[in-house]
Amino acid sequence: MLVHLTYPAPLASLTLTLPGTASLADLPIPAALHNSYLRTASTGALPFATPLSDLAHKDAPNHPVTIHVTPRMMGGKGGFGSQLRAAGGRMSSGKNTNMDSCRDLSGRRLGTIKEAQRQAELLESEPALRAQAAAAEKAKLEALERKLGINAAESSSAGGKRRPEDVDLEELARKKHKFEDNKFLEESREINENVRSAVSAALLLKKKKKAKAAAAEKGKGKATEDKSEEVKKAVQDKVAMPPPAPAAASTATAA
Description:
Elements: E1 2-6, E2 14-17, E3 37-39, E4 65-70, H1 80-93, H2 110-124, H3 126-148, H4 152-157, H5 169-174, H6 182-240, H7 247-254
Parallel strand pairs: 1-4
Antiparallel strand pairs: 1-2, 3-4
């Protein structure tokens, strides 16, 4: 049986004559292509135990069988489709959706129309907003009255609402309020001690700097005084020296 074996480039093809009982495992496959698979033009990957007689043409049994040696390619981990979908999502999200600069059929900008609609909605909701603000102000006044000790019964008996100026502040001040926040007291005491320590350290440092400056000034004054004394003594020694003898007297003595 004639077998035409095709290798990948640059290897040359090979033509063999093998018996029909031989299998694909009997074909000479180079060691460099041990990870390859065998296929024909009309089939996919073939197992190596396939006999050559199964690959012969039914209409022409003597026709040579062409077998392709195809090397396998190392695959990756995949995920290419998800990357494409993510890129498409980013591209679609980057589109500009602000159409305020566009105009309608009458020539008005869409941004102007939207602003007019917002103004109309605001005018329609103005009474509700005012009522809400009035309710909030009323709740605030009621909370202030409760805090100052003004209840609704006293207000109704007085024939109207009591003003905060009518409350006896001295009576409220006489009420005893016990402060029992130990953590706050401890933190306050610690803060006071830290402040005292910092002030004491600053005063001590200032005192040391002042003493050092005074010592340096005193040493400088003493050095100046010693130098002036030396100059004065040198002048006195120079004045106390006897004057030199005249030249004429020395000549007469020699004669």
